Task: structure prediction
Amino acid sequence: MWLRLKGQGGIWINGCGEIVEKEIKGDKKFTLDNLHLVCMDDTLDFNIRKFGGLKSFLLGGEGLVMDVKGTGRLYLQTRNPSIFFAKRK
Result:
């Protein structure tokens, strides 16, 4: 789910683990696991792609990654929220 927020005032955000701010400058590309993204500036360009080959995509638990480029800020969560959906023994 994507939300675009505009205007004056504050917002509350929630993440799994600590929320870390990462500043991206210029044409430097930053790649991240898409499940770690909390929010980002709309000045950044992004591309979502699969990680690895087809076998690792389907069987290895690897999924999608985001390549982010431009100038702006990313806010990342340090833990992957899918841990809450893992089967426990």
Notes: The two ends are 31 Å apart (CA to CA). The chain has a mean pLDDT of 81.
